[in-house]
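@channel sequence for tomorrow's demo:
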Amino acid sequence: MISMRKMLIAMGLLSAIAITSCKDDFKVDAPYKNITFVYAIFNMNDTAHYVRIQKAFLDENKSAITMAQNPDSSFYPTLDVTMQELDNSGNIRATYPLNKVDMNLEGFQKDPAGNQGFFTSPNNGYKLKFPVGKTFDPAYQYRLVINNPVTGEKDSSDVIGVVNANPEKNTANGNFYVPDFMRAGYTIDFSKTQYKQSYNIIGSTPKYGQWLEGVIRFHVIEKNEAANTTKDIYVDYDFATQITEQFKSFSLSTYNSNFYTFLKNELGAAPANTLRYMDSARVMIYCGSTELYNYQQVNAAQNGGLLGDQIKPIYTNLKGPNVYGMVGSRAIAIYENAWVNNQTIDSMRVNPITADMGFQPR
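structure tokens (generated this afternoon):
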């Protein structure tokens, strides 16, 4: 199964969705028409939330690459975008506007045009900023609505719930509770490498969550004694995934021996005159919504291939005559500055897989 973390990064490129997302087959060489693609993954802990809305590059008389270089082929000049908050009966409790923003000014810059072949300006998106004290609430559900005042078309997402990111111990409310993250001095132990010895994190799957993934970011200091220089680096260990249901317990586990193979593959043997020191680690548990999981499942099954003159159908949860894409959510539980215990470092120094990696005792 593809890494959720890596998929989230890749999905930041709207073209990845634009070339593969549709609920019904459509002709690649059909006459030009506006095809809308929408992408958003919300996190209730974010201070601002963004939606990318673009056109597809579909015209029988022009190449997609040529059209991609023209921003008018990729953005609508005017859209009215709102977020509806719904109660359990489906009634609208509140409506919040999304404002068109320059994503460059929001800190989300495109790659240089020479690298990705497309225009770099404009780089538009739509920003949702709740009033002070308000954010997505797991007690309610939400619908994204897009009105095009020029064409009169109205598109909307399916009603979704936003994954509960509250870390407190309250499983009745569907909180994202990870017991190990609640205690001080949490340490990581991969020292025992006998058969089936494992590292494990348990917790409660939050409301609206389904797809879980555990990631440990190890910070390493490399010291070159000859040059008298130091370098701080990190490697991310995607150690386990699990598909479950909201409110249920989860258990993310990996054999301890896998850690040594991972570390060697990522960093290799120590270069000449180089000593390595294991610093702290950041332990992250990602939880994706059902929409994210469904997107991944359908995308994996379809493989994104082409059949004749048609693009294969793929997951979308947008409704409208010519709209495709995905609106979902995620949460992240994090433990900062976890300590890799001394027993693990001692094991790294003598294990045949990692003995030549230059790790030093503390």
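heads up for whoever presents: The first strand starts at residue 36 and ends at 42.
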